[in-house]
Write a structure and sequence with these properties.
The protein is mainly alpha-helical. The chain is built from seven helices and five strands.
């Protein structure tokens, strides 16, 4: 089994025709992702891929969610904490920031998740009525 870095996934999922380095690396990334018998994707790579797709490639949430849906569906790929990632992708489709969603779904065994991000996260999370309860600490 091999583990892949964010840049492999970015080259696999993102088209960057104006970058000669990307043009050179994209077929290599495709070969790694398609020809490797077993691939491991660390949780941190998933989080960083969302940042790269959103921040650098200006991809919309649906594009990231589609890429993650594809990745999670590949039989030869193991995504660390895949249940939390899958749930976070679903919450991201429903409007939550992906990082917040992943932090929350990774905390499923906890009784509460506390954050000072009231408007962007806590209020939205409360409307979804999932565990653990999300709240602003006092």
């Amino acid at each position: 089994m091999i583990a892949v870095d964010t840049n492999i996934l970015a080259r696999f999922y993102c088209n960057d025709p104006d970058d000669p380095e990307a043009e050179r690396q994209q077929p290599i990334a495709r070969r790694v992702m398609v020809d490797s018998p077993a691939i491991f994707v660390p949780l941190t790579v998933v989080l960083e891929l969302e940042w790269v797709m959103r921040g650098f490639y200006e991809a919309d949430p649906a594009s990231f969610c589609d890429a993650m849906g594809h990745l999670l569906g590949l039989r030869h790929v193991i995504v660390e904490r895949w249940e939390a990632v899958s749930d976070a992708v679903d919450l991201h489709r429903r409007g939550l920031d992906f990082a917040d969603a992943l932090h929350w779904t990774s905390s499923a065994a906890c009784s509460q998740f506390v954050s000072f991000d009231d408007r962007r996260f806590v209020r939205r999370a409360r409307r979804l009525k999932r565990a653990p309860e999300v709240m602003v600490p006092k």
